[in-house]
Write a structure and sequence with these properties.
The chain is an alpha+beta fold and 305 residues long. It has 2 domains: 134 residues, 2-Layer Sandwich (Beta-Lactamase), CATH 3.30.450; 157 residues, Alpha-Beta Plaits (2-Layer Sandwich), CATH 3.30.70.270. A hairpin with a 2-residue loop joins strand 7 and strand 8. Helix 6 packs across helix 7. The chain starts with a helix and ends with a strand. Bound molecules: guanosine-5'-triphosphate.
Length: 305
């Protein structure tokens, strides 16, 4: 009997991933396993502290909510979350992983109370590698490799999404399409690699001007599009003008080895009730075409009539 118990204890201690017993009020009742310092920090000091003693309030509240839901639903639940060593008070920072860790938490309610309280068992597994890989795949699928702007596929996806939202809620939504003027001359004069640097610098410049919600995409070659949620045609035109001026005033000395400025031409359109995605794009494209035809370095807004 004693031998069996010893074996059980040894087996539990050897568990590669940390297993926490957490009470409904957020107390760390016990911690078993998880001693591999390549993947985990030593959390043994946490026992008998409460979540709010060691975690920032927002995180502690989130953990408590997960415990509460698991007990209420009385079933296994799986959650994913990030935790940095600096988030947890009292950890030995010199030991364990340096970067933020992504965890998968598998939370199971216990059938009997612990010290008079309902409790869960929370198995935490380091999934940082998998998470980073997923992020990398997502970036590969969504981003233009050269400039870091979103790619055309992402633009079409976002347009579908915003179009559906527009039909439901009628939030104003606009599209700007712009193209660098006489860009062939840049390539011819400075070479294709220098041209690449100009495109990359220009995207950086635009990102600084745009809001978090705006989606800057490489539409093709030296043509870009910006999807502007919650923006009507007038506001979109103002924003396009601001971008045009900012890009035109930038000196590509660093990229081209001499003072050089490049202008852009742009077309702008806004979703209207009888629109399809294609007609929204076509109006912005028509605006761009007109801007080129009327001497470049300007913005033409195309309304739906
Ligand atoms: N360096 C570089 N150049 C590119 C890339 N994609 C497209 N281009 C170049 O962009 C240029 C586009 O030329 P055109 O379509 O004649 O247009 P433009 O010279 O900009 O003239 P307008 O648009 O009429 O003002 C071509 O020289 C393409 O090779 C790229 O990824 N890198």
């Amino acid at each position: 009997m004693k031998q069996n118990l010893e074996l059980l204890m040894e087996m539990l201690a050897a568990l590669p991933d940390p297993v926490f017993i957490l009470s409904e009020s957020g107390r760390y009742v016990a911690l078993i396993g998880g001693h591999d310092a390549r993947y985990y920090h030593d959390g043994s000091h946490l026992v008998n502290f409460s979540l709010h003693d060691v975690l920032p309030k927002e995180l502690a509240d989130w953990f408590l909510e997960q415990i509460r839901q698991t007990i209420e639903e009385n079933r296994l639940r799986t959650v994913e979350y990030a935790l940095g060593a600096h988030d947890v008070k009292g950890l030995e920072l010199a030991e364990g992983p340096e970067q933020d860790i992504w965890f998968e938490g598998r939370i199971q309610p216990l059938s009997n109370p612990v010290d008079g309280e309902r409790a869960v068992v929370w198995v935490a597994r380091n999934i940082t590698e998998r998470h980073n890989m997923q992020l990398q795949l997502k970036n590969l699928a969504e981003l233009d490799e050269l400039t870091g702007a979103y790619n055309r596929r992402k633009l079409m996806e976002a347009l579908e999404e915003k179009f559906a939202e527009f039909k439901r809620y009628h939030h104003p939504t606009s599209l700007m399409i712009f193209d660098l003027d006489h860009f062939k001359q840049v390539n011819d004069r400075f070479g294709h690699i220098a041209g690449d640097k100009v495109l990359t610098a220009m995207v950086k410049l635009c990102k600084k001007q745009l809001r978090q919600q705006d989606l800057l995409c490489r539409y093709g070659g030296e043509e870009f599009a910006v999807l502007l949620p919650n923006t009507d045609l007038e506001e979109a035109t103002q924003l396009a003008e601001r971008l045009r001026k900012t890009i035109g005033q930038y000196d590509y000395h660093k990229e081209l080895g001499q003072a050089y400025s490049i202008t852009v031409s742009a077309g702008v359109s806004a979703l209207c009730s009888k629109d399809k995605i294609e007609s929204l794009i076509k109006r912005a494209d028509d605006g761009l075409y007109q801007a080129k035809a009327s001497g470049r370095n300007c913005v033409i807004a195309k309304s739906d009539n």
